[in-house]
Specification:
Blueprint lengths: L3 E4 L6 E4 L5 E3 L6 E7 L2 E6 H60 L7 H33 L11 H31 L5 H24 L1
Antiparallel strand pairs: 1-2, 3-4, 4-5
Helix pairs in contact: 1-2, 3-4
Length: 218
């Protein structure tokens, strides 16, 4: 390979590059460049360009690794969530079976089977307590996996969203029931406000009480 005249990438002056060297310095501007070879031809590239290119490649590699890690974490999270939901379904199904068996045994009045029934009831009650604790722990794990704490007042999350939706629903029920009752009572007894307001409030209170009772039984 002969000495090749190459233009300096900084000032475009001619730089003579000897065979096999990896760096060349421009005699005109003093810039030291890195020599790159391709198919027997040499070219000059500024050192800063090489460093910048290397940094770009490293940053791109790091970003790709972060994205792959995020995807893997998301997949693992979904798998864990699926397993927890399956376990919750299994526990709740067994808990329902235990409750059904308990109710059935409580209806037995044969005194001859009293001792056996009593022992079986004690066993079922113990299992129901263990299943209830297990269900609570699974739900807590699901809540934490979904990114919010159950039972936290004033926080954000699905539970608070459900609470806000419930309050809005009760307000709509009260307004509609009040309007309907107001029309009816105005046409019948001439009282368009007082009695309909009380009755609509009682209706909303009854609906809310039923919802709270179902929530406690769940």
């Amino acid at each position: 390979m002969k000495v090749q005249p190459i233009h300096c990438p900084s000032c475009l002056a001619v730089v003579e590059v000897a065979p096999g060297v990896d760096r060349a310095t421009c005699e005109y501007c003093g810039t030291t460049s890195i020599v790159e070879y391709s198919e027997g031809h040499a070219s000059l590239r500024l050192k800063d360009d090489i460093v910048g290119l290397q940094r770009t490649v490293m940053d791109s590699t790091a970003e790709t690794s972060r994205r792959i890690q995020a995807v893997e974490e998301g997949v693992q999270k979904q798998l864990k969530h699926s397993r927890l939901m399956q376990e919750l379904t299994r526990v709740e199904k067994r808990l329902d079976d235990v409750k059904s068996q308990t109710y059935a045994l409580q209806g037995i009045t044969d005194k001859r089977a009293k001792k056996e029934v009593k022992g079986r009831l004690a066993s079922l009650q113990k299992e129901a307590a263990e299943l209830t604790i297990q269900r609570t722990q699974i739900k807590k794990s699901i809540y934490e996996l979904e990114g919010f704490e159950p039972g936290v007042r004033g926080g954000t999350g699905k539970k608070n969203d459900r609470g806000n939706s419930g309050c809005l629903g009760l307000l709509i029920i009260w307004i509609l029931s009040f309007l309907v009752l107001a029309v009816v009572f105005r046409a019948t007894v001439g009282d368009p406000i007082f009695i309909p307001a009380i009755l609509s409030l009682l209706l909303v209170w009854y609906i809310r009480s039923r919802k709270m009772k179902k929530g406690l039984e769940a």
